[in-house]
Design a protein that fits this description.
WD40_rpt, 4-stranded antiparallel sheet, anaphase-promoting complex binding, mainly beta
């Protein structure tokens, strides 16, 4: 035990303070080191001290020493601020440590019992003759009605994944072809963009043309729905919002990109739009402020065209983007703060991105590369962005990705004119209703009392 100096009750005078911890504070010391009986007596005794003349000074000094020294002759003070040897007491568990342990335990409990691994091969392969080998197009979409729409040259086909039936919705006149396809949110209509600047709305059930939307003068490479608002991006560098329920459908037209707009994605909440262009930029737009042509952020860290865009399903402000051949990077952005969270070099052209809604993962489809990473699918864990594995079955570059309504199957369209279906996102978590439930449960552990 360390020896202390005469005024040992002062914490600055401890000969080896590192061997002690101080669980109290300046005014509320450790009660285990106090003589509470004596404290109670001194605090409640209202009588004045009266000196008895029969006792001399020496006697009073001896009595005082008995009252102020402990049994071993060391000074004793009330309300002393001192610690106890660390070896003599258990460490105090702080709130943060408890929360970390609870979060870890909850995370372990929410892990699925089934071991996650990639399938060795595709679940189904369909021929896709005349699928155009063009990086900038967006010619495939899987609707909530479980019907896949895919443009094969001048024709648009619908494939019903429940019964396997195939039907042709439309055929374009000679000299033109389909450049973009997107199902409406209720899966009643298909928006179709064309090489010669047309934008049409088709009824999938009756196979009839509903209306023609004007505004572009060059090819419409990408379209995206936000409720009854249809957004289109074109080679004329412009983005147009159309209200398909209004007689005068054009809501606003904005132009920030300096080259072709090849990627459009609305956030899940529908209030933020991400647009990617051939000049390597990503623009973030507030839906309510688009008419003023003012964007929220411009991300310019990619070194090639940005077609692949995907909003995270369990973090609404997180956006994933992929760059073309000269870039090959997947970047994760915080669209609320306008910052890049992470970036990885895939060493291959990024043509498509799809988030796994059942596990925290991101799937990427790749094209051209000078390395072995070309023409493959890669699965990444989020947020670490470590690779889970890859799938190499396409003979040519992967051009498009889309996932089924239940979020378990992903279809990839390749320049080898095949559609390959992958059961890569299953199985579902069996003990939780979704990935976001973990974040909700953890939020309940946060206490305002610190």
């Amino acid at each position: 035990m360390s020896k202390v100096q005469c005024d040992w009750y002062s914490p600055t005078r401890l000969s080896s303070p590192s061997q002690y911890d101080f669980p109290g504070d300046r005014f509320i010391p450790n009660r285990s080191l106090m003589d509470l009986d004596q404290a109670q007596s001194l605090l409640t005794n209202r009588t004045r001290r009266v000196q008895n003349t029969e006792f001399n000074e020496l006697y009073r000094q001896k009595v005082e020493e008995k009252l102020t020294l402990d049994s071993e002759g060391r000074p004793f003070r009330m309300l002393v601020f001192r610690g106890s040897p660390k070896s003599c007491r258990k460490s105090i568990r702080h709130i943060d440590e408890m929360r970390e342990e609870e979060a870890l335990a909850l995370e372990n409990n929410t892990k699925p019992n089934t071991f996650r691994r990639l399938p060795k091969k595709e679940a189904r392969i369909l021929d896709a003759p005349n699928l155009r080998n063009d990086f900038y197009l967006n010619a495939m979409d899987w609707g909530k009605n479980n019907v896949l729409a895919v443009a094969l040259g001048s024709e648009l086909y619908l494939w019903n994944s429940e019964n396997g039936k195939v039907s042709k919705l439309l055929q374009v006149s000679e000299g033109d072809y389909i450049t973009s396809v997107a199902w409406s949110e209720d899966a009643k209509f298909v928006a179709v963009g064309y090489m010669h600047s047309k934008l049409q709305l088709w009824d999938a059930e009756t196979s009839k043309l509903v209306r023609v939307l004007e505004g572009h003068n060059r090819r419409v490479a990408t379209v995206a729905w936000n409720s009854h608002t249809l957004t289109s991006g074109s080679q004329d560098h412009s983005i147009i919002n159309h209200d398909v329920k209004a007689g005068n459908d054009l809501i606003c037209r904005v132009q920030a990109h300096t080259e072709e707009v090849c990627g459009l994605k609305w956030s899940r909440t529908g209030n933020v739009l991400a647009s990617g262009g051939n000049e390597n930029h990503i623009y973030i737009w507030d839906f309510k402020k688009m008419s003023s042509c003012n964007f929220l952020y411009c991300f310019n860290e990619h070194r090639a065209a940005v077609k692949a865009l995907a909003w995270c399903p369990y973090q609404s402000d997180v956006l994933a983007s992929g760059g073309g051949t000269k870039d090959g990077c997947i970047k994760i952005w915080n669209a609320q703060r306008g910052t890049c969270i992470s970036s990885i070099d895939t060493e291959a052209q990024v043509c498509g991105l799809e988030w796994n809604r059942h596990h925290k993962e991101l799937l990427s489809g790749h094209g051209f590369s000078t390395s072995e990473h070309q023409n493959q699918l890669c699965l990444w864990k989020y947020p670490s962005m470590t690779k889970v594995g890859d799938l190499k079955r396409h003979a040519s570059r992967i051009l498009h990705l889309s996932q089924s309504p239940d979020g378990l199957t992903v279809v990839s369209a390749g320049a080898d004119e095949t559609l390959r279906f992958w059961e890569v996102f299953g199985p579902r978590n069996t003990d939780t209703s979704g990935v976001s439930d973990l974040d909700n449960l953890l939020s309940l552990k946060i206490s305002p009392i610190r």
